[in-house]
């Protein structure tokens, strides 16, 4: 970004550590998980070789599964500690306003509305993503434990394990799409923040960026910190970069075609 104004701490060290653990575990679970399911595919052989064999790959998958569970437990403990220390916070809870914002955002993207919705601390997309992660961790965690320790669930019928295997792999596929197509674009490839928003790394967001992405939170902030009005307006040098936009279109189209060609047939086979 060309000119950075006053910086604001948006995410604490604890939040960044939780995000880091979850991100590392999920990315490594994707990398190690799909070669397990599709071990006969040519591309899977390269990944298996990278880890020194199938046994090692499977071991690493289990290790990062434990790390994902640890990150979830870490988050729960942090939520409880925050509740005790600061009291309840409802900022992440979806409301009717989020439903309205989603409709207004759709109208804005279609050119019906001239201005985008005005978000507070979290937009409806961020709330959706947060609860989608909770859903994903629960589904992947419990289904993974059942597949890892089938003896503990001996009382379940045989078909339950087959259904669990399908649920586990298909949820992983949805997770991969959400991470690489949705989340990565918003955090890394969006021309407004390219090559990356650094909030996940240092917790900081510029006052100008906050004003643009979360205007209602910005208004609340400057009400108690009037000096933040004197910020330097900034704009990413990539914001209106046509080469970047066209390059991203090519990359995302290529990724989409690759997923269609490689994983969709395998995904459908798993269902059928």
Class inferred from helices and paired strands: mainly alpha
Given the C-alpha coordinates, what overall shape results? globular
Strand proportion: under 5%
**What's the story with the biggest beta sheet?**
2 strands, antiparallel
Q: What average pLDDT do the residues reach?
A: 85
The residue ranges in which pLDDT falls below 50 over 5 or more consecutive positions are 1-5
CATH evolutionary superfamily: Transmembrane di-heme cytochromes, Chain C
Question: What is the string of helix and strand elements?
Answer: EHHHHHHHEHHH
Q: Kindly provide the name of the CATH class.
A: Mainly Alpha
Supply Rg: 21 Å
The CATH topology name reads: Fumarate Reductase Cytochrome B subunit
> Total helix count?
10
Number of strands: 2
Spatially, the strands of the biggest sheet line up as 1-2
* Helical residues, percent: 55-70%
CA(first)-CA(last) distance: 48 Å
CATH architectural grouping? Up-down Bundle
Count of distinct structural domains:
1
Describe the structure in your own words.
The structure is a single chain. The protein has a two-stranded antiparallel ribbon. With 272 residues, it is mainly alpha-helical. The chain has one domain: Transmembrane di-heme cytochromes, Chain C (Fumarate Reductase Cytochrome B subunit), CATH 1.20.950.20. The longest helix is centred in the N-terminal third of the chain and has 33 residues, at 54-86. The chain has helices spanning 13-37, 42-50, 54-86, 96-109, 124-148, 158-189, 199-202, 207-213, 215-224, 242-271, and strands spanning 7-9, 204-206.
